[in-house]
Write a structure and sequence with these properties.
The complex is a heterodimer of chains A (about 220) and B (about 280). By secondary structure, chain A is α/β, with parallel strands linked by helices. Helices cover about 35% and strands about 25% of the residues of chain A. Chain A contains eight helices and ten strands. The longest helix of chain A has 16 residues. Chain A starts with a strand and ends in a 9-residue tail after the last strand. Chain B has one domain. Chain B is about 80% helix and about 0% strand. Classes of the chains: A alpha/beta (about 220), B mainly alpha (about 280).
Chain lengths: ~220, ~280
Amino acid sequence: MLQIRDLCSGYRDITVLRDINLEIEEGETLALVGSNGAGKTTLLMSISGHISPNSGKIILNGTDLASKGPDKRCFLGVGLVPEGRRVFPDLTVFENLVVGGYSRPNKMQAENITRVMDVFPRLSDRQKQLAGSLSGGEQQMLAFGRAMMSNPSLMLVDELSLGLMPSVVDECYEALGKLVKKGIAVILVDQNSDAAMGFCSNSLILETGHQHWYGKSSSAPKVSI
Amino acid sequence: MTYEIVVLTNMAIAVLFALSLNVITGFCGQVSLGHAAFLGIGAYTSAMLSKAGVPMVITFIPAMGTAALIGLIVGVASLRVRHDFLAITTMGVVFLFTGIVRKQELLGGEIGIAGIPAPDFGRIGLLVTSLLCVLAYLLFTIWIRRSWTGFAFDSISEDEDTATLLGINVPKFKLFAFIVGTSGAGLAGALYAHQVRFIGPDSFGFVESISVLAMVIVGGIGSIWGVILSAAFLSALPQFFQVIDDYKLLVYGLLLFGAMRFAPDGIDGLLRKVSRWRAVK
């Protein structure tokens, strides 16, 4: 479904990622592991189109994403759960979800909201509540739900457990598991690399922008971050 | 009776002008300190065409079109700047506009354009036309507010970066806000030119830009009904109390300060607080 070939990417003249190669199929999960500054978020931003790669190819379902902006990539099936959740605090839960469905026709809105509520029933009671008044875990669920509104085939999750209580983190992983069961492929970044590698079938270990190791999580070398 | 009609027409034009800024600053969160320039562009376009013999109502279309076109250019130029930098850029537009108009003999230079033809249907006709324009623009802004575009504007206004991360085409919506807002100002300008029948560069300066911003802030940024109330009230006040007209800048400055310090959500926010308080009691 997603193929990345010899990707080099970064910010203006600064190259952060070098020669990244990976492949992910429908319903598969990939943990991006590495220390701070390794290039995990840069890789997610390159896939979602917020950073233009210097070279290499990103192909989603046979479409080369090179000339596609973030909105087109969202339409093609790339959903993003950004670091720190970044819900719109002064908009209600319902409004946050509607904004997430930007790339899909209005007639799909009700159906998509129902789908989100099935996965995150806790949000259904809070539809009229301001997102800023939700707990951290609920905001993370809202961020997942908002990304789901665009019917993604690939979901990019940046720092899933950042600032969350361990029990809430478990709930978030459980929710992520539900999405994977629905056939959504997930690329996950989490500060807790053991949890991320435990959840994901595959892992990619980054070291200062280089692909250090890529393969089945079960056979991954011990990582010390 | 004529006096009341003039006051009501002025109020309608002010409401239209304030609603147009509300789309850019209120809905989409893009601070504009140069909105009077677009009022001026509409006024000058309409006045010149009217003097050339084009019927007033027909001049509305080129007045809106010219203002929207310049608004689009300013919007494109402003895409890379935000917050205070955007405010300064838009402020530059109003100085640029008055500076150009002052030096153009074709536009009447410092003296301005006098003898703009009176509307064929008289003062009452102009009032009715102004009210119809306000109604049409009001309905359009309500539609925007309730449509998907309104949600996109909300997200951009709240957090532009996150909106981009969600795949929202932020530049497209910002430009749309600029086009809708500046075309509304152009329409208000066309009405204004036929209301006063004399326009000069001083009528569209920085002070006017701040005055309309005060109307939006006092009404409640983004609130349609709050802005209507505030614009109607603030535009009518100097007509009844000459002293306010003499100290207009002082009064508007105090209102701006008072609103930002004590009621950042403006009249709309205050009314909501009162209704919540009454519901609790």
